[in-house]
């Protein structure tokens, strides 16, 4: 907090950091903004990116995970999910909520307490939390809310140079798990989806208040078979590990008919 507070303004600090309440230590609170994405989509991108990287270079994934053995690197994602490997079970799939929940140890425990605290922090401490599936609208809102930092951001995003760079960051070898594996994964991430839907609703409410006419595609919905499964699937296993990841491409994890 002291390091950030001593940086000459204006500046933008971007990093994976669990929410910090600056005012608790009598330090001026920064303006918090964030973007999240569909939880299963994020999980799939992370799973394959850690193993195979993106289009920027064949060797990038080897540099990123030099200690990963071949049996782990080529582990079938369906086996990982259905056989309860730690990488594909709680709490490692409980990823987005802890960042918004904060520093309390209970923030890393999948449950209602962390979920509600994360929601409260968003309402009280974040200027904007957008969804990656509507990125252009996120950029438009940032330009409206923080013009000193984001004026012209959409033109930059649509520029040929940025498009070329963006196309290189798509995760390679990513594929969709089986229906059975998706069902299990969806239930394990039910708190993540409740939070994601909350953020999406808040984001749409902000767009409506500002008068922004959305040009994005309709948001993804949870297919009926996934919703039904959440009512009859046993509680997931608990683990004691944390996932460290990056967010890459925004390809949909399900292709709707």
TrEMBL record:
GO terms for cellular component: Golgi membrane. It is a single-pass type II membrane protein. The keyword Repressor does not apply. One of its GO terms (molecular function) is sulfotransferase activity. Keywords: Glycoprotein, Golgi apparatus, Membrane, Signal-anchor, Transferase, Transmembrane, Transmembrane helix. Its main location: Golgi. Pfam families: Sulfotransfer_2. It is found in: Golgi apparatus membrane. Gene3D superfamilies: P-loop containing nucleotide triphosphate hydrolases. Residues 237-249 have a biased composition (Acidic residues). The keyword Transmembrane helix applies. Residues 237-257 are annotated as: Disordered. Belongs to the sulfotransferase 3 family. This is Uronyl 2-sulfotransferase. The lineage of its organism: Eukaryota, Metazoa, Chordata, Craniata, Vertebrata.
């Amino acid at each position: 907090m002291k390091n950030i507070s001593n940086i000459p303004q204006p500046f933008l600090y971007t990093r994976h950091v669990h929410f910090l309440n600056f005012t608790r230590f009598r330090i001026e609170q920064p303006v918090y903004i964030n973007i999240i994405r569909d939880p299963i989509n994020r999980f799939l991108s992370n799973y394959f990116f850690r193993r195979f990287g993106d289009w920027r270079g064949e060797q990038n994934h080897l540099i990123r995970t030099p200690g990963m053995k071949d049996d782990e690197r080529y582990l079938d994602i369906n086996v990982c999910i259905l056989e309860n490997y730690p990488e594909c079970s709680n709490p490692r799939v409980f990823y987005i909520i802890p960042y918004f929940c904060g520093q309390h140890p209970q923030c890393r425990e999948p449950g209602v307490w962390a979920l509600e605290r994360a929601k409260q922090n968003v309402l009280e401490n974040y200027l904007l939390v957008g969804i990656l599936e509507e990125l252009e609208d996120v950029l438009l809102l940032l330009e409206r809310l923080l013009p000193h930092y984001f004026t012209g951001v959409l033109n930059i995003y649509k520029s040929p140079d940025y498009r070329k760079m963006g196309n290189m960051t798509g995760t390679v070898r990513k594929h969709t798990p089986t229906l059975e594996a998706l069902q299990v994964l969806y239930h394990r991430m039910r708190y993540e989806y409740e939070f994601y839907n909350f953020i999406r609703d808040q984001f749409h409410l902000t767009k409506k208040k500002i008068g922004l006419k959305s040009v994005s595609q309709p948001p993804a919905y949870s297919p009926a078979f996934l919703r039904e499964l959440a009512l009859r699937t046993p509680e997931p296993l608990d683990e004691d590990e944390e996932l460290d990841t990056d967010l890459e491409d925004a390809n949909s994890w399900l292709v709707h008919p």
